[in-house]
Structures are given as structure tokens and as C-alpha cells.
Amino acid sequence: MRPSDFAEADLSEVVEQLTTDEAILLTAGVGFWHTHAVPRLGIPAIKVSDGPNGIRGNHFFMSTPAKCLPSATGMAATFDTELMERVGLELLAEEAKLKAASVLLGPTCNTQRNPLGGRSFESFSEDPHLAGMMAAAYCKGLQAGGIGACIKHFLGNDKENDRFGYDSIMSERALREIYAMPFMLAEKYAKPWCFMTAYNRVNGTHVSENKHILQDVLRKEWGSNAATMSDWFGIYSIDHSINAGLDLEMPGTNKWRTLDLMNRSIQSRKITKRTLKERARKVLELVQKCCKGAPEILDGDGIEQIGDLQAGREIMTQLASQAVVLLKNEGDILPLKPKEQGLKKIAIVGGNAKAVVLSGGGSAALKPSFFVTPYDGIVSALGKIDPDVQVTYSEGARAYMQMPTLENEIVTDDGRPGWIGSFHSHEDDNSMRPVDKPLKTMHIDETRIFLSTDYPKELTKRFTLRLRGQLKPRDHDCEYEFGLLSAGRAKLWVDGQLVIDNWTKQKRGDAFFNSGSQEEYGIIPLKAGVSYSIFVEFCNVRAPADSDPDEALMDSNGGVRLGGAEVQHPDDLMASAVKLAEEADAAIVVVGLNADWETEGYDRTTLDLPGRTDELVRKVAAANKRTIVVTQSGSSITMPWAQDVPVIVHAWYLGNATGDAIGEVITGKVNPSGRLSLSFPKRLEDVPSHGHFHSEHGQVRYAEDLFVGYKWFHHRKIEPQWHFGHGLSYTTFEYSHLTLSEPKVSDGDLNVTASVKITNTGSVTGTEVAQLYVSYPTTSELTHPPLMLKAFAKVKDLAPGNSEVVKLSLDKYAVSYWEDRISRWVIDDGVYIVRVGRSSAPEALSLSAEFKVEKRLEWNGV
């Protein structure tokens, strides 16, 4: 019998035959990534995999190379649900099959409440309609390919600090209209196979134990038949989560739902066998969907495959290039045409130009199957249109938080990138003395080593990893600085000299999902042409710290990270970049954040770019009037120099094809069509949740209520740096002839169609995003946001002089609000205003029209 034969099983009969112990086992995972199998009844285990912008597979350590998509904010910036659905089907589903994963842990569609949130880059937008429609397209495409979507984190997980304990205190209207809405739209249009619950509380109760959210909203109102899964280590009880409707606890390590504790809970009547089997059945329904969706996974050998490392590059580049947002282009400096513009020398400067910045950090991180830096992508694109153009480079100002990893700087004795690692058991489980003879020796091609649970299982509980390699010779004398941190303890020796001791005593840090130490540093002189031996010893028992004497065993989050870079005086770096800019005909400054600054596990503390980045931009712009700034981040950043530079391109995190996409946009092979999926404020103090974003005694008060993102800026009449929906093109468009159909009411729904004519009034073919915003009647008894995105459409490849009539459909979602007193959605009678244009900026919404709802309506469900 093949595992996939379970697709035809009668679930009622299977559930009837389950023993109590088998039902218990089905409600919790096995290991880190699998559900439980019951061979007696032909029930196979299914495998799940991170993450929302690519499929890493089972391993954090020495993971299988994978395709990395743009951050969710970048994908949403395309405003292209058709492309998103295609990516889900053609790329994500096929990649999941290579990784032998039946369920993808994504998409993330929490609301961009504050750009400081560590995982903001993982979520689509500050706007619930855009987020929900992109999430629905993602799920629809993925599941059409036979792979289950596990949409997350349901709900209110909008920050990282204190994420296991904080209480998101919000009104029921905000919960429904803002934070649940993206999930609701995904349920309506795509029906995700699984919902992952958030770590946090909502209005006093952890979501994994929250009957109101899991039963009243998800099951009863929305009618969802999805399985519900906890986030990893995201349940905090047995009976509360079982009774609230949490079907599956993940992972299976250190779990609550053991046979002993669950049986005791049954015996003490805290849970019933009936409820237990209801939860087990939902897990079996998920398993059965996976058997039907991609049976070859269940019948396969479970081994992760690499596949063609370059496969999918075309669609990845297309998605990445359409995500790029042209924020400013004074003097039509872009696109760069060196011959036509007389550009013979172009300087590329900035800390992100040659850095490997493809994603934010945490669950979204993966090992790319290939990666193109901005520098390489721009040089390649320029070379295709003018092979004679000269390109110079300087880092200018360093942008990293942690020292850059050294995969390409350390080699083995036989010349392979990386080093040789040997795993050593200790004399016993309580000993700190490693056995000299290694249990396993292997080539390791990464210097950020997050072992998670991927170390050899034969090791004692305490173990040592020894890492040996050679630092590549320099072509000049220099000083070199190393940075070492660990979730455990570690030391670094260079040519036998102890350089860093992060072993004896540590300072606690945020790395490795808050398990790591702070980075410790050491500097050594290097001679030109000399190769230096590198030796790191790591033990998975962390050292004591002043703030925490606990020498905890890192049994699932152990790791060590070695980084390094040549020591260069910041003034010298700055002067080098400015000099190159002065000598060049144009300067491209590539700056931004990376996975150290934006990551799961902790929140950002500022919207500023790191270090002396802002100073670099200003000085380069002063030195060269043809300065192009390319920014990389997954969420908003401040740009105090925005008025001082002629061109700004926001590139998000673009995944493997980062450089290809940036190069194509800068040189005009692709006419940019990306639009901002969130507002960029001028300063942190203008963010709606400023002052009540942080957890205070475990409480986070959502005091801005409905006024999230651009809704706040319009309500308070605050001018952001860049409006939600903003983005320029290399051509121009004119909007005209806005008309609305008469509202039609049938089967409890309301339908209005808006038609608008869009004409390309420029000189090149371009793509435009038409955005429709609705304002509710001023006669309403309640306060509503002054402007709400309710529809959008993308007009693709419109030739100069050509026009296209776009139709934008509105339904009950476009005109409804949540009525607390009756727990229903309400459509007020009155006059609704429709505004259509290029962004949410008042001056961009050039057309408006009205329609009238004659009679109040109420509805529930989806």
C-alpha cells in the first residue's frame, strides 16, 4: 500500500478506528517538521517547510539550495495577483516537491502596523485589502500545484519583542476590519488548507487557546475547514488549546501533547475523547488533501533534491523587477543610457552594493541556489548596452550589524569554499570534556552555522564542533577584524593564537532566535600573500553571563557564527566613495538594511539607515549631480536626504535575482511599475502606533485603532515621505472617463463596477496600476478612515498613445464595517465616494464619482 492511497480513505471509518493514543499522537508533530504517521491505518506522515519567500527544506544547517523570492512587501508592490498566482503554481509548488514538503508555512499576511516590527518584511502590506488579495493569489496558485498553504500568523502578531507573551489589545472593529481582514479575504478566495496561530495573546487570551478567534470567527462565521496549527513552540497548555480548536501542535520536540499528559487530561475531564478525535480528524483532512494534491511526495523517498539551480530564473527576475519602485526621477536621469547621455565612467558605492542581501532573517532565510549582487547586476546590464562604460567601486560606509560571514574568504586545505568540521561527543552527558576522536567529519560551506536539530543524533547531549580552514591570502598588508558569536560557547584561534574568547563569559544577545550571545571581536595583522589557519571550537552549552548565570544546554537552537572584514577607517572609506563620485559621470549609491537588522526574533529600534549611510548619500549627491540612490529594505526607512538627490529607487529584498532586477530597471530594459505596499514616513514619530508599539508589562495597546498606515496620514493630515501606492514610470499616464454602474443588491451582496480610461501619454511602453479608494458616507454615526483601498488593476505593456478601459469591481467588502453591538457586518445607506488614481496621495487621485446605497444591509460569514 502506498502512502498516497490514504487519499481514498473514508475518514469517518479511520477516525472510528483510532485508539485514544493514536488520536493523541496525530494532534502533535514528530521532530521539527513532520506530522505523525499511523501505519496500522495507512496514515502517512506529511512534511512541512519554511518559508514565505522560498522553501528552505528541513535544514537550517547545510540546507538544500533554494529559490528565494522577494520579501512579501516586494511581492505586494507588484500589485499583480495574476503573477503572484503564477509564481505560487509554477515556482513555489514545484520547489516544494523538490524539498519533499507537502505544506508550505506561508504566506505571512499580518498587518504592517509599524515598520519597526522585526518580521514586517514577511507581511504583504499595511493595507488589508492589498494584503488579502495577494495572500489569496499566493495560496490559490500554490494549492493548484498540489501543495498546502499554511497562512500565518493568525492573528495580531505584528511585532517580535516579547512575542510569546504580549497581549494585543484591540477593538473588535480593528480586529475585523484591519487584522483579520487579510485572512478573511484569503479564506473567501483561496481557502488555505491550514492556518497557523500566532504566538501572542489577543484581548487577554493566547490565540492558540482563543475560542473567539478559532471557533467563533474562523469556523462558525467564515466556515473554514482548514486545519489549525500552532507556531513552533506556540502553545502554552493542553486543555485550553485542545478545547479552543487548535488541531496540531508543532513541533514534536519538547511538546505538551504527550501520551502521558494528554491521557491525564482526559482522565481528569479537562478534555474529552470526542474533542480529541475532532482535532485528530482535522489533521487527517489535511493529510488527505496532501495525498490528493501531490501524491508523488508521499510516495517518494523524502530526500530533498536541489534540481536545476538556475531554474525559474526568468520568472524570479520578472517578479523582482516588477517589485522595484521608482520613487523619484528628476531630470529623467533614469533609465541610464551611457552612450546617449555621454556617460563614460559610473561609480557604484555603498555598503549593500556587493553584499549578499536577499531576504530578511529568521524563518524566511534560506541558502540561495544562486545570487546576483546589485553591483554585478548593474555592471552586467550596463555592459550589454555599452561595453565601453567604465565602472568603479567603493564601499563608502559600512551597513552591517554583524561582521559579514566568510564563506568566500575561508577555504579548506584542498581549496573548497568553507572549512572542515568535526563533531565530538563528550565523555558523558554532563561532561565538558570532548572525546578527541570525532564522531563525524564533514565539509561545511557556511560560517553561520545554525545547527538547530541537525547535528548527528549519536552525539552525547553535550557536544563539541571543531572547525578548521584557511583564510585566503590578501594582496596587501592589512589589519583584519573577526566577529564571533554563538548559541553555546566558542573560541577563535588564528595561526594558533587565541583571538576571541566567547567561551569563558558571555553577553546575551538576539542571534539564533534569541539564544545567541552578543558578537565578540578580535583584530590581527595580516601579511600580503600569506594564508592563515582558522580554528573555531564550539560547545553547545552556553557560558554564564553577568545578567544570566544559567549555563543552558542548546539542544535545539545551538549555533556559531564567524564573520570578518578588513579594518578600514570610516573616514577613509567615505573619502574613497566621494572621490570616485567626483570623478564619475554618474554615481549609483546602493544602501539599506539586511537580515541582521530586519529579522524574526527582535524588532528594529529605528527607521534610520545604519551607521554613516545617510552621510554617505549626502556627500555623494553633493559630489555628483547625477546621483542615483538604490535602497534595500523590507519595510519603511527614513530618507532625510530625499530632497537632496535626483533619483531614488526602492528595491526591497528581491531574492536570488536581486542584481538582475535592479540592473534591468536602471538601464530601462524594464520600465518600473512597482508601487509602495506601505507608507514611508518622514520620521518615526509620524508612525500611527508610535508611543504604543512596545510591550509594556505584557500589553500592546492598538490605540491607533482603524487608522493604520496611509489611513492615519490622511486622517491626521500628516504628509509622509512617500505615500502608500506611490511609484513612478519612465512614461506618463492620464486617467479619464470615470463612470460607476448603479449598485445592485442580490443574495446579500452589493455590486458596483467602476470604469476608467487610462492612456499612455508618454514616449515608451509602460505598465500602470490603477488604484480605487472608497470613502464612507459622512452621515454615518461612526468614524471611518477617510480613504480605503478597495480595488486595484494592472494595465500591462500599454504602448505610447494607446488607451485601455479598466473595470474595477466593488462588492460588499468595499462598503462594509463591523458593528460591535450586533456582531455583524453593516452597509450603511448613504452616499459613497469613489476615487481613482495612481496612489493614495490626494493629488494622485484625480478622478472621483459617487454612488448611493438606498437601504442599510447586514451580513455575516465571508
From TrEMBL:
Record flagged with keyword Hydrolase: yes
Catalytic activity: Hydrolysis of terminal, non-reducing beta-D-glucosyl residues with release of beta-D-glucose
Family matches, as SMART domains: Fn3_like, PA14
One MF annotation (Gene Ontology) recorded for this entry: beta-glucosidase activity
One GO term of the biological process aspect: glucan catabolic process
EC number assigned by the record: 3.2.1.21
EC top class, as a word: hydrolase
Domain of life: Eukaryota
Domain PA14 residue range list: 414-578
Keywords from the UniProt entry: Glycosidase, Hydrolase
Pfam families: Fn3-like (PF14310), Glyco_hydro_3 (PF00933), Glyco_hydro_3_C (PF01915), PA14 (PF07691)
InterPro entries associated with the record: Cellulose_deg_GH3, Fn3-like, GH, Glyco_hydro_3_C, Glyco_hydro_3_C_sf, Glyco_hydro_3_N, Glyco_hydro_3_N_sf, Ig-like_fold
Similarity remark: Belongs to the glycosyl hydrolase 3 family.
Protein name: beta-glucosidase
Organism: Trametes cubensis
